[in-house]
Design goal:
The complex is a heterodimer. Helices cover 87% and strands 0% of the residues of chain A. By secondary structure, chain A is mainly α. Chain A starts with a helix and ends with a helix. Chain B folds into two domains: 149 residues, Rossmann fold (3-Layer(aba) Sandwich); 61 residues, no CATH class. Chain B is built from seven helices and six strands. Classes of the chains: A mainly alpha, B alpha/beta.
């Protein structure tokens, strides 16, 4: 913890030194950004925009993870499904995020559905590939055990399949979260009237670097909180059976 | 019966089991003993022949490896396989297999011997009509194997399932079975069916040795 604080202190120090060198207009110092952040917070705009962006992140994340897990499990367990789905996956994986977003807005209009759908579609193939890897490495011996003891399919899913997939789901969730929130900002920049991405777009047109940094920092802080308060405790809970020494 | 692509693992063989009877399958490595158990359990469907199981029979199986869920405790492992077992039944089972102290441990914390006992507890907890045991005591030290054998004998006497035990240990077969089925090398046929008098009771070592000598002479092992 001590080293982390020192590292953080160094970063802020370098930021301050950089702003002195480059000038406040190109790189405002920590103090100016903190004041801008306070201003936005007091007016309520910060909470409103953060909320809008977080809601989009959550919706796209949940849709992509749910669909990606189901498709990944099916493709991992059925060679035919895998051969059918693999070319689609490769196309989706290599389609630039921007193309998906622009096409979604053209086909579905500048709507919330198009925005969330485009983000989910960007994240979907990554989640699918990760979960498929997990589904391929499922222990056949345990499958046979479950068959012999006539376990119900829900029991098998919950107590045999999902625990084996947990590390893969966690990896997909972790990489997915950072991917999703970056793409959400682009979606907002291109076609939404609110959210952190929209605000940064406006600030860009006004060349308001202070506001850009204020919103970026606020959002990073929120995602760090999600990571430490939600993702990490969940991972520890899932891995609790590994932690105990023999 | 044939299994595994074009590979003939099993030859022609037929046998029946009465309820409460233990049959031991003894034969050389690779003669298809495990394949036979897998066919009976319904895990291998690629064979010619027929298997008649007790109507609506519950199946209990102990694989060569314990096959426990590493992310569930000992007790959860048993309960998931046997959701209908009562608390008292389970407590009795854990007591007999000396697992009571380990109920809340995860399989990764157990020695192989303990994990084997959990697998036995799981198979018995379903109160099986047919019990399939695939070398359940292999690679355990002799003393522990002997104790587990006695525990298994007691469980069989108390609950009388049909039991099929695969082993390559003749003493184990003599100590547990009503009948010993000797299989030939692959493709396996039954070479001999040898009954054991007053099975699963403590016998004078001379009697066991005599039976052993007779088996060795008859099969020219």
């Amino acid at each position: 913890m001590g080293w982390r604080l020192i590292s953080l202190g160094l970063l802020i120090g370098a930021w301050y030194a950089g702003s002195q060198l480059a000038g406040e207009r190109l790189l405002p110092g920590p103090r100016a950004v903190a004041l801008a952040l306070l201003d936005e917070a007091e007016s309520g705009a910060l909470a409103f925009n953060l909320g809008a962006t977080l809601a989009r992140v959550a919706a796209a994340f949940v849709i992509a993870m749910a669909l990606g897990s189901v498709i990944g499990i099916v493709m991992g367990r059925s060679p035919i499904a895998n051969r059918l789905g693999d070319p689609w996956l490769i196309v989706l994986l290599n389609l630039p995020a921007l193309v998906i977003i622009v096409l979604a807005y053209i086909w579905a209009g500048l709507t919330e559905t198009a925005a969330v759908g485009a983000v989910a579609l960007n994240k979907l193939p990554v989640a699918t590939v990760t979960v498929r890897e997990g589904a391929r490495s499922l222990d056949m011996g345990l499958d046979e055990m479950a068959y012999v003891f006539r376990m119900r399919s829900w029991t098998r899913m919950r107590h045999i399949v999902l625990p084996q997939l947990a590390p893969y789901l966690a990896a997909a969730a972790r990489s997915g979260l950072s991917l999703v929130w970056k793409i959400v900002l682009i979606v907002e920049l291109l076609g939404r009237p609110n959210g952190v991405g929209f605000e940064i777009g406006v600030a860009f047109q006004l060349f308001d670097v202070t506001r850009i940094l204020a919103y970026a920092l606020a959002f990073v802080a929120v995602m760090l909180a999600v990571e430490t308060l939600l993702v990490q405790p969940l991972e520890r809970h899932i891995a609790r059976w590994r932690l105990r020494p023999a | 019966m044939a299994a595994g692509g074009s590979l003939h693992v099993l030859g022609e063989l037929a046998f029946g089991l009465r309820s409460g009877e233990v049959a031991a399958l003894v034969g050389p490595s690779g003669c298809g003993k495990t394949t036979l158990l897998r066919i009976i359990a319904g895990l291998d469907r690629d064979f010619e022949g027929s298997v008649f199981l007790p109507a609506k029979g519950r199946l209990g199986m102990v694989f060569q490896e314990p096959r426990l869920l590493g992310w569930r405790t000992v007790e959860q492992n048993v309960r998931l396989a046997a959701p209908r077992a009562s608390d008292t039944e389970l407590a009795g089972l854990f007591e007999m297999l000396e697992l009571t102290a380990h109920r809340n441990h995860y399989p990764g914390e157990l020695s192989l011997g303990l994990a084997r006992r959990v697998a036995l507890a799981r198979a018995f907890a379903v109160n099986p009509d047919l019990l399939l045991l695939d070398e359940p005591f292999v690679s355990l030290d002799a003393e522990l194997a002997l104790r587990l054998r006695e525990e298994l004998a007691e469980l069989v006497n108390r609950r009388s399932p049909m039991t099929l035990l695969v082993t390559h240990n003749l003493d184990e077969a003599i100590g547990l079975a009503d009948r010993i089925l000797f299989l030939s090398p692959s493709p396996a046929r039954i070479l001999a069916k040898i009954p054991v008098a007053s099975p699963r009771e403590t016998q004078a070592p001379e009697r066991t040795a005599a039976l052993r000598a007779e088996i060795v002479r008859r099969l020219k092992l």
